[in-house]
Amino acid sequence: MSIRHGLLALLERGQMYGYQLRAAFEESTGSTWPLNIGQVYTTLSRLERDGLVRSLPESASGQRPYEITDAGRADLALWFATPISRTDRPRDELAIKLALALTTPGVDVRSVVQTQRTATMRALQELTRLKYSSDNPDDLPWRLVLDAMVFHAEAEVRWLDHCESSLVRHRPPAAGPTPLSEAVGHSGEEARR
Amino acid sequence: MSIRHGLLALLERGQMYGYQLRAAFEESTGSTWPLNIGQVYTTLSRLERDGLVRSLPESASGQRPYEITDAGRADLALWFATPISRTDRPRDELAIKLALALTTPGVDVRSVVQTQRTATMRALQELTRLKYSSDNPDDLPWRLVLDAMVFHAEAEVRWLDHCESSLVRHRPPAAGPTPLSEAVGHSGEEARR
DNA sequence: CGGAGTATGCATACCTGGTATGCGGACCGC
DNA sequence: GCGGTCCGCATACCAGGTATGCATACTCCG
């Protein structure tokens, strides 16, 4: 429900139409998360259906602007006043992956951890590069979004190291080959049955 | 695509049918993320459509077990060998919310930050309580999943504090009332147009 | 025994977020 | 004026996910 409230917040600034909304949304987070234009229209029509937004007559140039209603303002205020709870966050794909790797036969968990760690470190470097090569150091929202990603990436690296040491403590280092990894590259042989 | 590969990994252990798969999936992460039964069946049929899985004839008691194919094994190995990149993660709803709060008129950003911080700290306490009141200290996958959530929550608190101090540096403390917050509770007055 | 209640395996309908594509008008260059 | 291309907008469709329906089978009684 992030986009729904995001559009509402933008409309709180004043009337806007579809493309303006997309541009404003992407700009407000420094184009970190792109927003599909089709999604904007479907979300707008749902917002109108729910009475949180009202569509205005088309302008001369054909754009259909929307404005927020009082009900929409109330919903928006409620959103800002309500913390995001742990239960309504998306699944942590990395955690699931590692948990499954631990119980799947033939998987070298250590190399999964190391591969991920390398990738995350690379992302972290890219983020700090972005942070300091910025040409708009006064864009506070964008800087905070970037910081959020840095903090998350750092936590992920710490967690991966923690996994590594837990593995050393609880699992004997593997001796034999890792059967599953040999299956890569033979895809499709069975699929065409 | 997390569930897709999750089910594949479970089938790598051996043949299983729908309910077994759901139970195994939930158990492997300590029932942290529930999995809907309907999702299991739709995902299984898509996996079969894509040749990664093969359905076996119904057993006498009516269950239809599935087994992984060689193509499925290859796909699974590829998944384990490929790190999760920053770009295919879901949107960070909290970061978006705060970025929007900064540019939405009439929003008290400080109170948004504080409300979230309180909620996250509470979640953190709950997590540590869970961690130490565990009756199965040898369940390594579950412990690591729990640790992942702890690390994320800690990073979130740090980030919120960072936002707080950035706000103090860059924004003068608000003086007037916060108009938007007064709209709460009047929802619907305009909706019935 | 028989019938109500309940758990289980399975299937379907539907909602939501998202991408790809179609379409008409405005603004070019020539 | 005419073809191209960009823009604002809309539609169709797909995938992931939840809620719900629906049989069968099992249990627990009177």
From TrEMBL, chains A, B:
Residues 170-193 are annotated as: Disordered. It comes from the Bacteria. Pfam families: PadR (PF03551), Vir_act_alpha_C (PF10400). Residues 91-166 form the Transcription regulator PadR C-terminal domain. Residues 7-77 form the Transcription regulator PadR N-terminal domain. This is Transcriptional regulator. It comes from Micromonospora lutea.
